[in-house]
Design goal:
It is built from ten helices and 18 strands. By secondary structure, it is an alpha+beta fold. The strands form four sheets. It has a seven-stranded antiparallel β-sheet.
């Protein structure tokens, strides 16, 4: 996997010289000079604006019907700084401020100020424009470039090259979630394969698969690094695993086995602010058999997300706490604060070396926000995923409707039973059984859907690894 050229065309017919992500300084990685995914396109609503925060900058994502493209603006109207994400896309296809109705085109230019007279042309002033950011849609993700706009066409968009080369040959699962810890903490976590047997025991790992690990870094530099684990997972049963970190926010494992075919584990870590990031996880599969892919395609996306959220919650609480303990260590080198005697931590050390060697921390010197001490805050699913996910929002609404219908059906059946008795006398055994089963079945369905509904709102307080066998 390598970086590929961004889809934004240059203004002239000449092909621009490619620029590496991170800016021109060979000794520093500028986090602004890179592309970041901010949303799966399928989860965006073209009829209304969407708010997001990227590198502490509030942005608004909206569909420009005139330009037929997704636009990203700073989320503040130049008039009185009201958030444009609280506005609407009006009948003229413009992004309209909710406060006084100023309206903006896809370029960020102000096209309409309702309060100005015909003799005044305030909308033509540069001060009336909204700051915009370059965007690109690749492989179903909306990417944003927060740095210098003139550099965006020359900086490659980080995509999954094997998918680009053979888009129809893969079955892919996707998920995302806003996490209560740093983007760098997330990359450090997912690049470390040694934690899976223990942290994710009973979800995607087993303790008995833990073993000695010998990793090697093949190449390293400002743009990231590549590594190899010759033996691979499950004590070598699955084959060699290749790993890459593509700076600043993409990590993937690449594994090919005779039993299952080729599997990629791809994670993007988009920094929101200090101590918070958005994870995009993608799982492309090329199975040796067609059967697993068939069943994956049959599985509703929202149902997969429930399972994905459970896996993320396996380490969500302790990673939130861990990075605060690291913060207390101050400026001490990571290898002095943590004891890392085995090769299993090779990639973790390489990542830390990259951060310090290229001054790549996106929030240098900033303190973490106060620790979240309530588990329900750390395990919240609704605000971190469900409300942003088109599939889960719709599924939750349907579940709530069916649940209400079950409750109503049961109540009607119970209320009609006395009337039936009064009209026909003592009912037959069959009739009585049916009238008993209807409210009982409705109550059972209502209770089951209630448990399912809770999984859209909150995670498990006790991770599966800590449950008694």
């Amino acid at each position: 996997m390598t970086l590929t050229q961004n889809v934004i065309a240059p203004p002239s017919s000449a092909v621009p010289e490619a620029l590496p992500a991170g800016g021109p300084d060979p000794n520093r990685f500028d986090p602004l000079e890179a592309w970041y995914p901010v949303h799966y396109v399928e989860d965006l609503d073209k009829s209304r604006p969407t708010r997001f925060t990227l590198l502490e900058r509030d942005i608004v994502i909206w569909w420009d019907p005139k330009g037929e493209a997704w636009r990203v603006f700073e989320d503040k109207c130049p008039h009185r700084l009201a958030p444009l994400s609280e506005g609407r896309i009006n009948e003229a296809g413009l992004l309209e401020c909710p406060y006084h109705g100023w309206a903006f085109s896809g370029s960020g230019a102000c096209e309409h100020i309702p309060q100005q007279s015909a003799a005044v042309q305030a909308s033509l002033s540069a001060r009336a424009c909204v700051g915009s950011m370059p965007t690109a849609v690749r492989q179903g993700l909306l990417f944003v470039y927060p740095g210098k706009a003139e550099n965006a066409p020359q900086v490659p968009v980080p995509i999954i090259d094997p998918i680009e080369e053979d888009p129809d040959g893969w079955v892919m699962l996707n998920t995302f979630r806003d996490l209560p810890y740093d983007a760098l903490t997330l990359i450090e976590n997912v690049i470390d394969a040694s934690h899976i047997p223990y942290t994710h025991h009973k979800t995607v790992g087993k303790r008995e698969n833990a073993a000695a690990m010998e990793m090697d870094v093949l190449e390293s530099g400002k743009q990231g690094f590549r590594g190899i684990w010759p033996e691979g997972p499950r004590k070598g049963k699955l084959g060699t695993q290749h790993t890459a970190f593509i700076a600043p926010a993409l990590m993937y494992h690449d594994l090919t086995s005779k039993q299952f075919g080729r599997t990629l584990t791809v994670v993007y870590a988009t920094p929101i602010r200090k101590g918070e990031c958005r994870l995009f996880a993608r799982f492309p599969f090329k199975f040796s058999s067609k059967l697993p892919g068939f069943f994956i395609k049959l599985t509703p996306r929202w149902f997969s997300h429930i399972g994905n959220n459970g896996v993320l919650e396996d380490d969500q609480i302790f990673l939130h706490i861990q990075e605060r303990l690291l913060e207390q260590a101050g400026e001490k080198p990571y290898a002095q604060v943590c004891y890392l005697p085995t090769q299993a931590d090779r990639y973790v050390l390489e990542l830390r070396k990259w951060v310090s060697g290229f001054s790549a921390d996106p929030f240098p010197g900033q303190p973490l926000p106060p620790e979240l001490t309530k588990k329900e805050e750390l395990l919240d699913r609704y605000h971190s995923h469900t409300q942003h996910c088109g599939s889960c929002r719709k599924a939750l609404k349907r579940i709530q409707q069916i649940r209400a219908g079950a409750l109503g059906t049961g109540a009607i059946a119970l209320s009609l039973f006395p009337l039936l008795t009064a009209l026909i006398g003592q009912p037959s055994l069959l009739t009585g059984t049916l009238y008993t089963l209807i409210p009982l079945s409705a109550a059972g369905l209502w209770a089951y859907l209630g448990r399912l509904q809770r999984q859209f709102y909150e995670g498990r307080e006790v991770p599966p690894r800590n449950l008694l066998s």
